[in-house]
Amino acid sequence: MHSTLSKQAERVSPQTSAAPAIALDGVTLIRRTQEELHYDLKRSFLRLVSGRSRRVRRRTVLERVTLQIKRGEKVGLIGPNGSGKSTLLKLIAGILEPTRGSVAVSASVAPLIELGVGFDAELSLVDNIVYYAVLLGHSERDVRERIEDILDFAELREHRDEPTKTLSSGMAARLSFAIATEFRPEILLVDEVLSVGDERFRRKCAARIEHYWDEHSTILLVSHDMATVARTCDRVIWMDHGKVRFDGAASEAADAYLATIPTMASFRRGQDLVDLAHHDPRGQIVVKGRSGDETLYLIQDGRRHAITINWILRSHYGPQDVLIVDDAVIMEIVEGEALL
Amino acid sequence: MIGALARGSMPAVPAGWRRHLELVRMSALRLLKTRYRGTSLGVLWSFANPILMTALYTTIFGTAFASYYGGSILRYVFSAFVGVTVVVFFSQATTEALSSVVANGGLLNKIALDPEIFPIAALSANAFQQLTTTFPVVLVLAAVLTHDPLRAVLVPIVFAGVLLLCAGFGLALAAFYVFFRDLLYLWGVFSFVIWMTCPVFYPAALVPAGIRPYLTMNPVGMAIGALREVTLGHGPIDFSLVGGFLAVAIVCACVGHALFRALRRDFMDLL
After folding, report:
1. Are B8 and A137 within 8 A, CB to CB?
2. Of A261, A340, B18, B242, whose CA is between 20 and 30 Å from A122?
3. Residue B14 reports pLDDT greater than 50
4. Best CA proximity match to B181, nearest among A158, A153, A40
5. Nearest 5°: CA angle at B116, between B112 and B119?
6. Do A147 and A302 contact (CB within 8 A), yes or no?
7. Residue A280 CB burial class (10 angstroms; 0-12, 13-18, ≥19)
8. Which of A44, A112, A138 sits opposite B12 (nearest CB)?
């Protein structure tokens, strides 16, 4: 374990040392705001004709991010919602491309491990495993040899030929975790992984991740839970408004970071949201309170905003927003299939 | 160090075209599997559709229009069948390609993939269906009716042209659909217009002479014209008909591909 990383000082230029596993150089990412997500041709055309066409609004999601991660480093990414943590992972995974700057990754990257994978509901588990793993870059033959291992780890052997839609969301999450971690990637990107499945399976996942920890894989872990990060990572990168606010030893980051977020009493995650929130036809998350007069709050950027019942949380608030009622966290908003 | 060396790809798999083809093959296979799950008559169904429609047209229009086909109802049947095959394939393939990128938005947000594989896979899955059902019939038609080996050789080439045409439309539509989510509905209307303006079940000679030139600009109509020429035609082959269509198909494919490449930069912000 490398536990002696100090703030910024350890930056090394690629010329003077072995190439880092991940190197971001002056990365700026500008994206369309998702407010414009679902516009339609008819309306755009009418707007154009009536001379009221609007320019596409864009937002700087990451601004001049420069960082290097060495092979075998365990890095925790923390920061409030919308600070660019998940975006950073997507850049490293090659899903997004930077507007300016460069991203260089010199090792194999596992997919983002998070809830909601995008399995084909009609296909059998086996077919989904093969399809998903081939998309990840493995040959069909390799995958077929390892199907049993994957099914065993996910504890879904008896469901192998059933269509995937028969799985519960927890089972699907187990399967995606099993596939993503089966192939020993050199770089593991983990987005809130510890919310997979039930308590027992969560421990099993943690054990597998820890195994990677010991095997000198490079790991990037996005988490809200500073305690987890401090316990498992040597280095912490704290993102704030698209910039790196702190980059250094985990112990130094913990106190400063925790001071910026309100106390959270209890958590209920993803699936519990079904009663309270749903996607409206335009893809926005609509939150309804259980009873009419509770006040709900949305925590964003570390600040608490009172919101009213039926408030529309636009999806650009992103996953992992937190709603609290009377100072107790009642849920976390996790976008994706878990909601539907 | 500039750019990504091996982003998102594992060293075990060769990069470039082979991976691209492998992904298209797997995605097309997935589409075929979900389509035919639980139906033993799956493949036959894609046969039933054009045959039923041809039967319908023949019942209603066959006798009335037979005089345009040398008084032969059988020629009308073949002519309608070729037309229906092309039109059904075009509208199915392009409609499926249209929604393919958006439908796979979840995957594109998790794995670094070229979004182009999804419309191409949708097209391939549909093409596979044709190759196993109507295509052999059309090929046999050409051989039996024309007794002209050159025509039979041209059938696969015209069919390839139809694929290129669909690829061009499919790629462009898939890209636009990312931005304009009402396109599925609009394309439904538009492909009906394309259908109606193709001389599928009526002879082109029936259309007033002043309007006919506009109808010949319909690329799907051109495809039908070319395919009829090589399957039902006689005498010297009208190469301008076949060559003209192939040229249009290639241009369509290139334009669709270029549009897709130009627009894909913004895809991930909207998926």
Report:
1. yes
2. B18
3. no
4. A40
5. 130
6. no
7. exposed
8. A138
Interchain CB distance below 8 Å, A134 and B26: yes
Residue that wins the pLDDT comparison between B41 and B247: B247
Check A32 against B3: CB less than 8 A apart.
Answer: no
Torsion over CA: B178, A116, B115, B37 (sign):
negative
A40 reaches B (C-beta below 8 A): yes
- Residues in chain A within 8 Å Cβ distance of B5: 104-106
d(CA A125, CA B13): 23
Q: CATH second-level architecture of A1-110+185-261?
A: 3-Layer(aba) Sandwich (3.40)
Instruction: Please tell me the distance in Å from B237's CA to the nearest CA on chain A.
Output: 43
Distance from C-alpha of B217 to C-alpha of B197, rounded to nearest angstrom: 10
> What would the two tokens of residue B77 be?
């049947």
User: Which one of A57-61, A289-293, B189-193 scores highest in mean pLDDT?
Assistant: B189-193
Residues of A in contact with B4 (CB under 8 A): 94, 103-105
Per-residue confidence at A260, pLDDT binned at 50, 70, 90?
A: low
Length of chain A, in residues: 340
Least confident of A91-100, A295-304, B68-77, B133-142: A295-304
Q: Per the CB < 8 Å rule, is B8 touching A106? A: no
**CB–CB contact A111 B110 (8 Å):** yes
Residues 76-105 of A with CB under 8 A from B: 90, 93-97, 102-105
- Candidates B10, B100, B101, B108, partner chain A, best to mutate (most A CBs within 10 A): B10
State the complex-level ipTM. Answer: 0.78
Angle between helices B17-36 and B42-65 (to 10 degrees): 80
Q: Which residue does chain B place closest to A95, by CA atoms? A: B112
Q: Which of B250, B130, B102 is nearest to B187 (CA)?
A: B102
> What is the average per-residue pLDDT within B210-223?
88
Instruction: Record the tokens describing residue A277, joined without a space.
Output: 């929130």
The full set of domain ranges for chain A reads: 1-110+185-261, 270-339
Q: Is the dihedral of CA A109, A110, A114, A116 positive or negative?
A: positive
Q: pLDDT-based confidence at A225, cuts 50/70/90?
A: low
Determine which of A9-23, A140-154, A229-243, B37-51 has the lowest per-residue pLDDT on average: A9-23
**Residue of A54, A115, A134, A184 to mutate, testing the B interface (most B Cβ within 10 Å of its Cβ):** A134
Say if CB A239 and CB A84 are below 8 A apart.
yes
pLDDT surpassing 70 at residue B2: no
